[in-house]
Amino acid sequence: MGKAGIVGLICCCFSLILTVVSTALPYWYQYTERDTEFFFVVSSGLWMFCSKRYKEVEANCREITDVPEYFLAVRALVLMGLFIVAIANILGFVGIFVTRQRKNIFLTAGVISISAGICMLTGAFVFVGRTNYLAHGEFVQYLAGFPLTLVAGVAGIIAGILFICARPSEEHQSSSPLLH
Fold first, then answer.
1. pLDDT at 155 (0 to 100)
2. Of 10, 27, 97, 114, whose Cβ has the fewest other Cβ atoms within 10 Å?
């Protein structure tokens, strides 16, 4: 197995943690909206929408209820990535610490982890592609949730590649003294 499986599991755990944090954050993007008297700072995550008058300390946050279809797709892709990377973590743990049939476990964990990373990246790309049109010509700033999802997706893909590299060859697996 070597170090590739352990480093793959660490990357996979990192991806899971980042995905949980980024999914929960109400800060994926922000823009400024002008009213007749005030400037409003509007920020949103996947589940919460916050607005406040410019330079106020407290924001008025509420749940997003009227959700456009693309937003549902982003939520679904990120949540699928979250659940899939959790499964990859379980398989990676089993492959390293529990089972002797490492070749199939690592291959499966690798493919699943890469799939999770692709889901997360696709959700983030759909999000950025559509939110540019939401600000009505105002400048959109992408906040912590968006880049965390990108890093989580890349970490999931790297973990998958490491899991696939960690699977033992046929000769190595059959000649291992632990398997006899």
1. 97
2. 97
